[in-house]
Amino acid sequence: MKLFIPNLLANDEAGFWFPSQGSTVAESVDSVYFFILYVCTFFFVLIVGLMVLFMIKYRHRPGVEAEKTVTHNLTLELSWSVIPTLLTIVMFWIGFTSYLDMRTPPASSYEISVVAKKWSWAFKYPNGWIESELHIPKGEDVTLTMASDDVIHSLWIPAFRTKMDVVPGRYTQEWFNATKAGTYPLMCAEYCGQKHSEMVTKVVVHETRGDFDKWLQVASDIHKNKTPVEAGEYFYKSRGCIQCHSLDGVPKNGPSFKELFGKERKFTDGTSTIADANYIRQSILEPQSKIVDGFRPIMPTFKGQLTDQDITAIIAFIKSQK
Amino acid sequence: MATIVDSSNPTSDFPIQYRELNYLNCSKGWKSWFFTLDHKRIGIMYLIGVTCAFFLGGIFAVLLRTELLSPSKVLMGPDAYNQMFTLHGAIMTFLVIIPGVPAAIGNIILPVMLGAKDVAFPRMNLGSFYLWMFGAAFFLAAMVLGGLDTGWTFYTPYSITTSTAVITALLGVFILGFSSIFTGLNFIVTIHTMRPPGMTWFKMPLFLWALYATALIQVLATPVLGITGLLLVVERAFHIGIFDPALGGDPVLFQHFFWFYSHPAVYVMILPAMGVISEVIAVHSRKHIFGYRFIAYSSIAIAIFGFLVWGHHMFVSGQSKMVAVIFSGITFSVSIPSAIKVFNWLTTMYKGSIRFTTAMCYGLAFIFIFSIGGLTGLFLATLATDIHLHDTYFVVAHFHYVMMGSSLVGLFAAIHHWWPKISGKMFNEFWGRIACLGVFLGFNLTFFPQFILGTRGMPRRYYTYLPEFQNLHIMSTMGAYLLGLSSALMAATLIYSVYRGKKAPANPWGGASLEWQCSSPPPHNNFDHPPLAGDPYVMESVVYNEEIGGFVPVECQGDNKESVTASGDKEV
After folding, report:
1. Which of A5, B51, B240, B497 has the fewest CB atoms within 10 Å, measured from its CB?
2. Interface size between A and B, measured as CB pairs under 8 A
3. Do the chains contact at B383 and A154, CB–CB below 8 Å?
């Protein structure tokens, strides 16, 4: 709604009262808001209008006393009790029905899990990728399943008109369906300490599901976003190396990675070699070719599962274990 | 109107009561004040304490608003900011608004309005004042001992984990709660047992109805706050696992406990102010209050409904949908009795003879501000809109319109209405009205822009904000400066009147309730004999007397004679 009142705010796309509507529920929330606003404006004008009228008309004049009028009138008093009651019932009803839509996540929606902590958001996508900004596709139901690491936070996206507390010790949910591509602020609305007001990030709505998938694929392309050592650690943890290869020197099913790189390895067939990049690469792709003395030949091959770039990262990670 | 204020410089044939001893000069020395059992002196001490707390909380408010002039640092860092908004809220709530009208004004006026010598339990009354002082001291101690940064709501688990002086502040809240309970208990017993001959429940002034309803809430709700505070202290000190999810506790349970007190407490803040406005509008319009019974019943209805709506603070807390819907429904029920009162006040003004005294100006400002405060509550009671507006500046604006704009403006109206009775002096009406205009304009300039900030997406309790909100924040801060200056002007006008003001007649405005029948200021024991009470709103029972600059009864009745015989001629 554009009022005649000049816009005091920088964002031209928005109305006087609200930021632009970014989700399917925004329109119904705004229409409930404006219904109440018009009812309230009517009553406010009525009350203040009568007050000002009486102030002028019945102001004290010397020699003129107040007129004696009736001190009560049941019909009048009942009418100004019953009419507002009926109006509030309407308000309750429209607010209640819109609310049910807002609080009932659709059965098949795209699920993103959220962890809130002082003072940042972590959005975890279905492929396991974690990002501090929320990215979603336009026109698709998205459900956030939220948990908090410390105190109560509250996830609010003003453009979507949705908000939900993130309470430690339980999961809460919030869902929306974005209607317009663009970038909107996402903030913490429940006071959470020193940097409460900096717990603000972005929601990026992608035009199509294809755009979104492409973004997710690129974002989760770990080699662009992380150093080789960090990426190697990610693979070490996520691809199961961690089950058999410790980092503290204690052998498990396989030898520990601690101080492994550059050391001489003795094998069950009596040969030996220096553990260099080529040796590690060969061990990942053809684990059975060289079995270190004292271990069983149980490691599976990762051929086809890890790219050369992934393996390079793992080598860098092993190299860093000193 | 001007004649009331400026004329009648009493000279030689000054009415006899002014030469008599009154409660202010009947005994001297600090002991006569600190150990007094006189409800009026205790009320004065409360008034002084509340005023100091108000200016302390007000200074915090002005500093906070100054910080918000820019999204970047102006005066202080985020830690200081968080502590300051917490203390601003806690001081204004617990030390100013809750005791403001009931404990300060109620203490002074309630027994006089009842034609009684004192409250039912004068020693308990003094005790509750010292509990208030003691509780206030804990608050000040918390400020020094590491501050407090939880917000006045003390939400867990933040309040369990923060390193600030939460326990000290909670003990302060606990003690203040006892002060509030004792005052409420005292008022209930006083109203039940000490009404004078002729004053039935439905002949009681509406201010007393409001204080009675308030007292019921104070007695029934405050213990819950006390217990909640103690549980939180225990949780912090011994890690029991009541509210801390890390120990198996439930943080939402704390919110239920907290709001079970704190929502009814909102009505402890607003009901007495509504009572004040019922008196002020009737007296200064020279009209019988319209719909007496509806106003009286609505006070009780608000007190009862007030207990059933706390869950509307928690629509986004993760409570079940069903609970949210029920609380939303009941919340609307509170709006109806409030609306009834507003319509009754307006109808009272109809065909009146409205004098724009300072008290009346505050009364009219109250109707304006309370209408906005009450109507914006509808947006927050409605589920769909509350989800968006919860924890934003819209809420900040709404509750300031109700708590500050209405409760405090009600307190200001009460102070000006009864100031001649309390101090025995008339204040300067010109400066009083200038201050009132400043409070009104400053208040609206401060808080109206905050509604827009809230709907546009500005969360509350933010130290910094998106740059697009700066214009509205600057407007708001300018309003706060005007509001602060006007409050100081109001205080200066009143304090000046104590030293230089004209002596007040017994009944300067023409009220028909009993407090206007004793002299101003009242004698130590108010009335020698219980006066005979009639309808407190028959304004025709008193007429203006030029000679003494106040109103006198049309016909002197029985026991009331003594205080009004000074009137020679009567204006007809």
Report:
1. A5
2. 275
3. no
Q: How far apart are CA B494 and CA A126, in angstroms?
A: 67
Residue A219, SS3?
helix
- Measured between beta carbons, which residues in chain B are less than 8 angstroms from residue A184? none
Residues of chain B with Cβ-Cβ distance to A117 below 8 Å are none
Q: How far is B386 from chain A (nearest CA, A)?
A: 9
Give tens-digit pLDDT for B13-43.
445 444 568 898 888 888 999 999 999 999 9
- Which of A50, A92, A118, A183 would you mutate first to test chain B, the one with the most B CBs within 10 A? A92
CB contact under 8 Å between A193 and B344, yes or no, is no
Largest CA distance in chain B: 78
* Residue B61 pLDDT greater than 80, yes or no: yes
3 state SS for A29-40: HHHHHHHHHHHH
| Cβ neighbours of B386 in A, within 8 Å | 95
For B123-141, give the DSSP string. HHHHHHHHHHHHHHHHHHH
Q: pLDDT tens, A79-129?
A: 999 999 999 999 999 999 989 888 888 888 999 999 998 888 989 999 888
Q: How many helices (H) and strands (E) does chain A have?
A: 8, 12
Per the CB < 8 Å rule, is B316 touching A154?
yes
The pTM of the full predicted model, rounded to 2 decimals, is 0.86
Which residues lie below 8 Å from residue A48, measured CB to CB, with a gap of 6+?
A: B367, B368, B371
Q: What is the pLDDT of residues B432-452, one digit of tens each?
A: 999 999 999 999 999 999 999
Domain borders along chain B are 40-540
Calculate the alpha carbon distances from B278 to B369, B463, B465 in Å.
15, 40, 41
Domain B40-540 classification at class level:
mainly alpha
Closest CA to B103 of B196, B214, B257: B214
pLDDT of residue A12: 52
Residue A38 class from Cβ within 10 Å (0-12 exposed, 13-18 middle, 19+ buried)?
exposed
Exposure of A84 in the CB half-sphere (CA atoms within 13 A): 24
Q: What are the backbone dihedrals phi and psi of residue A25, each rounded to the nearest 5 degrees, phi first?
A: -85, -15
